[in-house]
Amino acid sequence: MNVYSVADKAIKVMNRKNLRAFNGLKLAKWDEANIVREVSTVYDSSARDAQRRYLEVAIDAYVTAMLSAGQNGKKARRKAMDDITDDWVLAMLEEADSVTLYAFLPEKDRKKARLIETLSAAQNRNEEIDKALRFWTIQVGQYAINSVDRARLEAFYDAGVKRVMWVTERDEKVCEECRERDGKVYEIEDVPNKPHLNCRCTLLPVLD
Question: Is the Cα torsion angle 103, 2, 171, 131 positive or negative in sign?
Answer without folding.
Answer: negative
